[in-house]
Amino acid sequence: MRPTPFDHPDSLRLIAEVQAFYRERYGDEDTTPVDPAEFAAPRGFFLVGYLDGVAVASGGWRAQDSGADPELRDGDAEIKRMYVSPAHRGRGYARAVLAELERTAAAAGRVRTVLETGTKQPEALALYASEGYEPMPGFGIYRHEPDSRCFAKPLHARVG
């Protein structure tokens, strides 16, 4: 896994793949407003996972604080664009990407990760539940969508 700009060609290819995945599952792309600069340090992070030089996984977080949305708190890190290419699923890459996003968010002083996913992504729901994510009230542009599910997890700074 390598820190990679959100607008790097490898990132953009994987983001296009995840948007195509959303179109298949939900009939439309994720239309959440996203600015690539939000995923740059110190208030964000994006990574790409490579296998034999080929980009196969991605994910990022962006700082969110109270005021942006009633359910968000100072110190939140919103996870976005978690994705693993279909041929590479089931090998633990999503879990590794998620762990690195949590680690880097905590290292940047963020205190909680938050995310939004949907009922038509049972794989994502199972992953987040198995990693200790708890349901939270809806936030963002999908807060009132019946298929939307939002989750949060406190982050703990690692010592040493």
From TrEMBL:
<keyword id="KW-0012">Acyltransferase</keyword>
<dbReference type="Pfam" id="PF00583">
    <property type="entry name" value="Acetyltransf_1"/>
</dbReference>
<dbReference type="InterPro" id="IPR016181">
    <property type="entry name" value="Acyl_CoA_acyltransferase"/>
</dbReference>
<dbReference type="InterPro" id="IPR000182">
    <property type="entry name" value="GNAT_dom"/>
</dbReference>
<dbReference type="InterPro" id="IPR050832">
    <property type="entry name" value="Bact_Acetyltransf"/>
</dbReference>
<protein>
    <submittedName>
        <fullName>GNAT family N-acetyltransferase</fullName>
    </submittedName>
</protein>
<keyword id="KW-0808">Transferase</keyword>
<feature type="domain" description="N-acetyltransferase">
    <location>
        <begin position="1"/>
        <end position="156"/>
    </location>
</feature>
<dbReference type="GO" id="GO:0016747">
    <property type="term" value="F:acyltransferase activity, transferring groups other than amino-acyl groups"/>
</dbReference>
